[in-house]
Every structure is written in C-alpha cells, then in structure tokens.
# Entry
Amino acid sequence: MEIKEREQVWQGGVSKNITFIVTKDCQLACKYCYLVGKNEKERMSWDIAKAAIDYILERENDFPQKSVIWDFIGGEPFLEIELIDKICDHIKLELFRRNHHWFNSYRFNFSTNGINYDSEKVQSFIAKNKEHLSIGITIDGTQRKHDLNRVWKGSEERGSYKDVVKNIPLWLAQFPGGATKVTISSADIPYIKESVLHLYSLGIHEVNINVVFEDVWNDGDDKLFENQLIDLADAIIEGEYYKEYACSFFSESIGKPLDAEIDNQNWCGAGMMLAVDAAGNFYPCTRFAAYSLREKKPIIIGNIHDGIDNNKLRPFLTLDRTTQSPQKCMDCEVASGCAWCQGENYDAADSDTIYQRSTAICRMHKARVRANNYYWNKLFRKLELEGRREEYNAIHKKQTEKPC
# Structure
C-alpha cells in the first residue's frame, strides 16, 4: 500500500491511545518534570508487555476506535529500545494474524529526549517501522534555556543541549515535519522569544509550547510572559515566519467566551486513553500512575490478569468542562483554549476527587490571550495594508481547522 493510501486509512475515525510505561528511568533530571518518582528499577518485562497486548487485542469489541496510537514513554523510552522493538513486532504480527481492524491503521508514538536517537539500535528500529512512526525530540530552545532545566541526572551543572542538538539534523531528515515540545516554567520565561526563533533556525517548523500546569508561578510572571510573547509576535510577523513556521502559543481559536453547545468536552483524554506499567496495572492516563503523583495515591483501573474494572473507569467518562470547573472558569470571557491536565487536577485537589479543576495557570492563560490578540491584530493590519487580505484569510482558515 502506498504511504498516501495508508494515511487515508489512518485518518478515519478517532484513535485509541494506549501507553506503555516501559521504564521509569531517564538520563536526565529535568527540573520541571512532573515525574517525581523516576527510578532505575521499574522496567517493563516482555511477559508483562505481551500480556497487555494480548489482553487488548483479544477484546476487539471493547476497543472499537478505527485507529490506534501505541505510545511509549518513560522516563526515556529509547532506553528500552530492545523491548520496544519486540513489542512492536508482536503488535504487527498479532494485528495481521487476527485480521484486526487496527491492521495498517496504527502509529507507534514517541516523545524522546533525543540523546541516544542516533544509536544503532534506535536507527534500526526506525528503519523497520518508518511508515508507522511518529517521533518528537524535546529541545527547549537555545542552549541557555535548554540547559537551565534539562540537566543530566546527578549533575545539575551539566546541561544536555549539545547532546541533543547534534541529533536534530538526522531527526529532521527522517521526519521533515517533526514537531518539538517546549516547556515553560517560571525561571525560563525571559528566553521564550529567542528560543522559538532558535528552533526555527534549526529547521523545526512546528513548535508546540506550553506552560507547566503545576502551581509554580510567581507574582509578575504573567506580565513577563505577555511581554515575551509580544516580542515573539513582532519577530514572527516582521520576519514573515508565519508563512512556513508555527508556534502553538498563537491561535485564533483561543481567548473567547465558551459556547455551551460545543465547548463542554473534557480537555484531555483521561479515561479514553489507557496506560499500562511495569507491574501490569492499567491506568486511565499515565498521570495517574504513582511516579506522576506528588500527593495522591495512584488510580488503578485494572490489570492484565483481572482486566479493566469499568466501575473504576466510569467516573472518568463523565468528565467534561462543567463537571470539574468552578463557576469563574465557566463565566470567563477568555475561557476558550485554557487547558488543564486531569492528573494535575487530581493531584492538586483538596480531596481524592477528579472533579476539581486546578486553576494555577489562570493568569498565564490570560496573558497568553492578550499577546495572542496582539499577534492576530498586527498580522491582519500588516497584510491588509499590503493588499494581502487573501493571505490572511488562508492563514485564518488553516488556524481554525487545526486544534488549539
């Protein structure tokens, strides 16, 4: 089958996301990482992985989604590349043997720190699975910003920028449309503009960037954040980067009042996703595993031996904006595009509830909206004055067709 045809198959329907926590180890100790329980001991075995795959594929009617994303995380997933290779081979074989409806409608998805991306074993895996792979390398921007947080385990003074950036050309050659994910915490706000432009200069055309959901923000951070985004907006518009590059901070779909008929979905897929750890436990999302939680006990919805307990899963299926948001969020004039993490909601809640939304990023979202309005107003004026209204309309159409 041609790649184009395979893409058409993949596009049909909503995909199921199934995550293997293959290891809780990582070469790095990123200062903003939400994984508070990383360790070298909890590594998934082949027997656990195989049992999880077989459990899922034997219950085809319980997983009716037309496509599936097999997601591999850690820690750093490529530390377990031999296990992952074996897992993916088994998945492919079983999908074929069972004539499963996910056959040829699947993706293997990775978010990696990029350190061992060029290793022989990782490259062999990529060559074997290229047409069904999605790989994102996390690089935070300039060396100054990246090394501020993304440091080697056991050495806060040793940043990882040089170890990652050397593999960016190889990654982009293999995945030309590759996107990176940038995380913003309080300490690195001053480096947002220079970092996004630096990533563009490396050839990365899509920069997905977000602030951490945890309550780490200081007084005045929102104003600094807004100023950095305005400076970035000026640079993108004046340099006409908007023609070929994207930054997720700027989107015309955010910063509007809620439409009750269409804006009541849950922001994330907790409960619709499925995660499995090294012990064979199932979770509604990886953020409900013990190593992701600071204050709360993990929420386990089953295991590979006893199966999924639908009574434990059911509360997650009732989650939407209304069931967990305070009234101030529902009435907020710039509510659209304000994100949340279901696991952080649970971890930060006053009790063991999943229905209490954390609002730690409220001021940061409002700052983003103000800068976003500045960006789109300036871009519109620029193209209107230059008689390029059709170009603006094309950009607007592209923005409204993609999710925030």
